């Protein structure tokens, strides 16, 4: 996460508290920059939904290096209560064997071992940028390998080879695209499949910072059009209705299904 440079209006951090029953979708850096430009205007008068690809402790680390003049406590206060959404990046069944033979926990332990050797202080919860996305990169390699194998088998039936491919060969390119599109397997990041547009299909995880920590509020399944909700959210002021949140996530007003957990 790259924070805005020279953020110096820390008093405005104290106004970052959700209170209104509607949502504004902005990058968190925008909130801080807005405080610099408009120090007299409260910059969080409604719940904020921010991108969820940052590391879990992004608002606590590297403040001095990035010229952030707020203290850690002030940054925590600024971040408190905001929502994030992101694709689920780790298989939630830690002991489930994937196509590679590893479980997601096996992968995490191997990754952490490599990072320690490279000098990263991960035992102090200091993870490098991109750590959370590591399973996606690993599964992407498997996706390509499986698609190439499938393409090679198809081309062999017609006396052709994948070695004949170049960027002007639309026939083989279409075969590769079709193979990737039909590839499905259980990976480190969970169940891997692709939409007809070539996008990765994955559960969307919804989180909120509560008492300084990210708490999973629920998951949204785009394929099943189903929202699983755990009733863990904490709102400051007037509470939201779950139906409204489901409507915002799915773009329409169908009532989401809730979890009893």
Automatic annotation (TrEMBL):
Main subcellular localisation: membrane
All copies of domain Receptor ligand binding region, residue ranges: 124-209
A GO CC term attached to the entry: G protein-coupled receptor heterodimeric complex
Molecular function as annotated in GO: G protein-coupled GABA receptor activity
Gene Ontology BP annotations: gamma-aminobutyric acid signaling pathway
Leader sequence residues: none
Coiled-coil spans in chain: none
InterPro entries given in the database record: ANF_lig-bd_rcpt, GPCR3_GABA-B, Peripla_BP_I
Domain of life: Eukaryota
Name of this protein: Receptor ligand binding region domain-containing protein
Source organism of this protein record: Zophobas morio
Taxonomy of the source species: Eukaryota, Metazoa, Ecdysozoa, Arthropoda, Hexapoda
């Amino acid at each position: 996460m790259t924070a805005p440079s020279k953020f110096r209006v820390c008093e405005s951090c104290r106004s970052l508290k959700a209170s209104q029953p509607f949502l504004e979708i902005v990058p968190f850096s925008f909130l801080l920059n807005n405080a610099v430009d408009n120090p007299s205007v409260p910059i969080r008068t409604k719940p904020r939904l921010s991108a969820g690809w940052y590391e879990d402790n992004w608002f606590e680390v590297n403040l001095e290096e990035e010229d952030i003049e707020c203290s850690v406590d002030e940054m925590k206060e600024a971040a408190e209560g905001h929502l994030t959404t992101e694709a689920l990046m780790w298989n939630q069944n830690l002991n489930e064997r994937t196509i590679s033979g590893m479980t997601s926990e096996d992968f995490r332990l191997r990754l952490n071992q490599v990072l320690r050797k490279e000098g990263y202080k991960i035992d102090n919860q200091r993870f490098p940028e991109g750590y959370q996305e590591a399973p996606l990169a690993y599964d992407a390699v498997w996706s390509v390998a499986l698609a190439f194998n499938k393409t090679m088998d198809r081309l062999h039936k017609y006396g052709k080879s994948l070695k004949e491919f170049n960027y002007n060969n639309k026939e083989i390119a279409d075969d590769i695209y079709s193979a990737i599109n039909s590839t499905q397997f259980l990976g480190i990041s969970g169940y891997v499949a692709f939409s007809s547009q070539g996008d990765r299909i994955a559960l969307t995880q919804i989180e909120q910072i509560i008492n300084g920590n990210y708490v999973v509020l629920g998951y949204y399944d785009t394929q099943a059009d189903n929202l699983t909700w755990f009733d863990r959210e904490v709102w400051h002021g007037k509470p939201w209705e779950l139906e409204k949140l489901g409507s915002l996530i799915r773009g329409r007003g169908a009532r989401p299904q809730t979890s009893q957990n």
